[in-house]
Automatic annotation (TrEMBL), chain A:
It holds the Pfam family ABC_tran. It comes from Olivibacter ginsenosidimutans. InterPro entries: AAA+_ATPase, ABC_transporter-like_ATP-bd, P-loop_NTPase. Keywords: ATP-binding, Nucleotide-binding, Transport. Coiled coil: none annotated. Belongs to the ABC transporter superfamily. This is ABC transporter ATP-binding protein.
UniProtKB/TrEMBL annotation, chain B:
Coiled coil: none annotated. Keywords: Membrane, Transmembrane, Transmembrane helix. The chain crosses the membrane at residues 20-38, 66-86, 118-144, 164-193, 200-228, 248-270. It comes from the Bacteria. This is ABC transporter permease.
Amino acid sequence: MLLGEKLSKTYPSGKVLDNVTIQIAPGQIYGLLGRNGAGKSTLFKILCGLIKPDTGKVSMHVARAKPIGAIIEKPGLYPYLSAADNLRIFAGIQGLPKDKANIVQHLIKVGLPVDRNDPVRNFSMGMKQRLGIAIALLNNPEYLVLDEPFNGLDPIGVASLIQLIQQLAFTDHIGILLSSHLMVELTKCCHFLYVIDEGKMVNAGFTNQLIQDHIQRFSIAADNITTARAIRNYQPVMGMNDVKITCPASQIANVLQALITEGIRVTACTPELTLEQLIKQPTI
Amino acid sequence: MKTLVWAEVVKLAKQSKTYYALGAVFLIECLIFITAYYQGSTILDVLLDSLKQSFYFEGTLLNGNLILYIVLNGLWFNVPLIIMIITSGILTDEYKDGTIQTTLLQAVNKGSFIGAKYIVAVGFTLFIITFMLLSSSALAYSIFGKGDLVVYLQTLNFFPAADAFRRICWAFASGAVAMLFYSVVSVTLAVWIKEAAKTWIAAALFLIITNLLLKLDLGITIANHFFFPKLMDTWQAFFYNEIDWSSVWINNAVLLGYGVLLTSIGVWAFRKQDIG
C-alpha cells in the first residue's frame, strides 16, 4: 500500500496542498480529479519523493529497488535519442540489462514500433506517453503514477492508453494513480476517484458510488425522443442527436423503463457527471 | 556511479552541440592561423625589426610556437566561455527536457547523479583542452614550421624552439586546471539557476568579473595570492625565463581545492533541492 498522510506544501505563491491524505493499493486504478492548479502535480511529486512536504509523510510497503514509476506533467525524454536509446540510458543507469532483446520487449509492451530509429522529438504525443510509460515501468515498480496521461491524445490514443493501463493493473498487479481534469476518461478506467480542489481533498469514493451519488444529468439517444412523455418532467434540453435530462441516478432506471413502455427505442444513455458537481458536493 | 558516468558520456556524444563546441574551438584556431598567415609577418617585422638586427633567431619569428602561444590566449575568455556553455548544459538540458525528473524517478541516487555530471564536465574539459593542443600543434607546425618563441611579458622573453614546445605543453596542462575550475563553476551555477540562458549569462558574467579581479590589486596579500581570480593566469608562468615551479604547483593545487569545494557545495545543494 502506498500511503500519503496529511500532506501539506506551501510555495512562496501560496499553499498548494492542505492536509491531503491518499492511498493506493496494488492492482487497483485510482483517479485524481482536479482543475488545473488544484495541486495534483505537487501531490504526485511528493508521493514520488521529488519534493518534500512541509508536513505529513509518505509511506509504502515495497521490497523492490524502484517503488514508484511515474510520468509527471510530461514524459521527460532525451529528444535527440531514439526510443530504444532512451530506454537503454534509463535501464543502464539502474544497472538493468540493456541488450536489444530486453529493449524490444519493453517497446512491445507499450505498443511502440521496434523499427523506429529516429529521435523521439519526431514522435507524436501518444508515442511519447507510451515511451514515458515504458521508462516508468523499467525495474518493475510496484506503483505507477501518471500525471495527465491523456493530454494531447486523440480519442483512439486515449482508448489505447486506457487499455494499456488496465492491462498493467490487472495483469501485472501494479497500483496505478492517474490524474486528469477530464472526467470521462477517468471514470472509464478507475476503481476509485479522489477529487482535489485548491489543495484540499474534497471528495473520494468508488467510481460507481460517486457517479451514483452525484449524477444529475443524463444524455439519452433514442428514436422519436422529442415526442416522449416520460422525460417531460426532467427539464429536457434537445440536442442534435440526443436529449439531456436532469434526473437523480436513482430514478434513471424508471425513466428508461417508461420510455420503452412508450415504444421509444433507446440506443444510448450516458451519465454526465461534471467535475464541478464533485467539487461542489463534497462528501469528505 | 560508473553506469551514470557512462550514460552522461553517451548523452554528450549524441548531442550536436558538443560537436558545435569542438567546431567553435577549431574555428577560432583557424581564424588565428589565417590572420597570422596573411598579416602576422608584417606586424612582427615592424615590431621586431630592430631586434632582428642585433640577435640571431632560429627560423622565422612567425612560427608554430608563436601561433600556439596565441592559441593559448584563448584560455582568457573564448575557450572557458565555450566550456561553460557546454558543461552547464549537461544539467540545464535535463531541467528543460524534464529528464531530471524521469532520471530521479528511477532507482538512482541523487548524489551519484549530480556527481556523475561533475565528473563528465571535468572529462569534457580535459578533452577540449587536449583537442585544442593536438589540433593547433598539428596545424601550426605544418603551416608555420618550428622556430624560436618570443613572448612579451613585462619584458621580451626568448625561448629556443626545442624549449618552447615543452613550455607550451605545460601551459596547456596548467591552463586545463583553470578551465576545470570554470567548468565546475558552470555546473554549480546550473544547480541553482536551472535555466540554460540564465546560466550562460551568469557564467559569462563570472568570467568577466574573474578576469577583472585578476588585474585588480585587492590590497590584502593573501587575497592577492590565493583568491581564485588571481590563480587563473598560472599558465602564463611558463613564458617567463625562469619558471617558478613551486608557485605553479601551489597555485594549481589551490585552484583544484576551490574546484573540489565548489563541487561539494553543488552536490550538497542539489541533494537538498526539490526537483520540479
